[in-house]
Write a structure and sequence with these properties.
Number of strands: 12
Oligomer: single chain
Strand order of the largest sheet: 2-1-5-4-3
Largest sheet: 5 strands, antiparallel
Order of helices and strands: HHEEHHHEEEHHEHEEHEEHEE
């Protein structure tokens, strides 16, 4: 009877019983040990479930996890943010959720519950329509099929990105300003002390000359820095015209040819087709010049100096790739590459890549880079 009771408790996942008072049953010692082991494992799992649930419910991202049962899907988990933000009660049936959020569920059903990365608009409680970034994935574990949906407000993503960008930018600007203002203030105090003397020695005069020269030098640097910032902040709207891809590349390469020859760099233009682009020719030439100039700098210490220009067309978009055989971009600075005024070059202003990115984005495209096999590639994506 006791044996059957213990086995039944294990099968039903019921670990509320206490078999410690039955220790006299020596023949059941192994069974009781198994019961206690499974009981501890269940308690550990419950503790972990509580922690995981707490984490998911405190994340400001809508999380929805579906579980497949036969040919239908049921809601396995819906976190607090999803439930409150979309005013959906924590239901268990997919059909009810479809009635509450038809735009979201419609996209998922159209894609047959496969992986999706897209943006969509959802109206909540007759308020203004909001745009969300949606990412979904599918996972199978122990014959169980799960579908995970993550929803982030575009506004929240943009605000977070803008805040991080401004914090980083202010750090750079503060650093640059202090680098110039601190020595200028120090030299000004030194000059003030000198001019208050009744007489000046030749050594004092030399100090004054050197101080004035240094102050002018730092002031010039500060002026160039401010002008660079204005150039970034006041980028004119592109004046678009029809330009051939081959003409854009060839014109730029001709402009850069003397530098390539001087640095003994081999340039290969592998673009074997032609396309028309709607672009501001001058602005886009500047982008390519900036990228080629970066490549020249990256190749300065290399034995093999090669730049390869390639292009391909995908889904009505043109991807122009500039690859060099330099050392690549260090992983430590990958997130700073497009940061205004960040540079690894002594004579660099740190606005070339930032300006290039802004120009490409103003054309409705994007600028990105890839590190592969000790080479760096910058990719310009433009609408054909």
């Amino acid at each position: 009877m006791l044996y059957d009771k213990t086995i039944l408790a294990i099968l039903q996942n019921d670990f509320s019983a206490d078999f410690s008072k039955h220790k006299s049953f020596k023949n059941y010692a192994t069974l009781f040990k198994l019961y206690d082991t499974l009981k501890h494992k269940q308690n550990d799992q419950v503790s972990k479930d509580i922690i995981y649930s707490s984490i998911l419910n405190n994340i400001e991202t809508g999380i929805l996890i579906l579980q497949k049962e036969e040919n239908d899907w049921n809601i396995f988990l819906m976190n607090e943010y999803f439930s409150k933000h979309f005013t959906v009660p924590k239901v268990s049936k997919w059909s009810y959720l479809r009635n509450q959020l038809p735009s979201l569920c419609g996209i998922i059903e159209e894609q047959s519950f496969e992986e999706i990365k897209t943006s969509l608009q959802i109206r909540v409680n007759n308020q203004d329509t909001q745009t969300f970034v949606m990412q979904s994935s599918r996972s199978k574990t122990f014959n169980q099929d799960y579908y995970i949906v993550l929803l982030d407000s575009i506004q929240k993503v943009v605000e977070k990105t803008e805040k991080e960008a401004w914090v980083n930018l202010m750090k750079v600007i503060s650093h640059e300003l202090l680098n110039s203002l601190t020595p200028i203030r120090s030299l000004s105090q030194n000059l003030q002390e000198l001019v208050q003397q009744e007489s000046l020695s030749q050594e004092d005069l030399e100090d004054m000359k050197q101080s004035v020269f240094t102050m002018l030098n730092r002031s010039d640097h500060l002026q160039k820095f401010v002008e660079s910032y204005r150039k970034l902040a006041m980028l004119p709207t592109p004046k678009k015209e029809r330009v051939e891809l081959s003409q854009l590349i060839e014109t730029t390469l001709q402009l850069m040819a003397p530098l390539f020859k001087q640095e003994k760099i081999e340039v290969s233009n592998t673009i074997a087709f032609n396309r028309w682009l709607e672009i501001d020719k001058n602005q886009m030439e500047q982008v390519i010049i900036n990228l080629l100039t970066n490549s020249i700098y990256a190749l300065s210490d290399q034995v093999e100096k090669q730049i390869i220009i390639a292009a391909e067309v995908k889904e009505k978009r043109i991807f122009i790739t500039i690859t060099d055989t330099g050392n690549g971009i260090d992983t430590e600075i990958e997130d700073k590459v497009f940061l205004p005024f960040f540079t690894t070059r002594k004579e660099g202003a740190g606005i070339g890549l930032t300006l290039s990115k802004s120009i490409v984005e103003a054309h409705g495209g994007y600028l990105a880079f890839q590190n592969e096999n000790d080479t760096t590639s910058f990719v310009i994506c433009l609408v054909e």
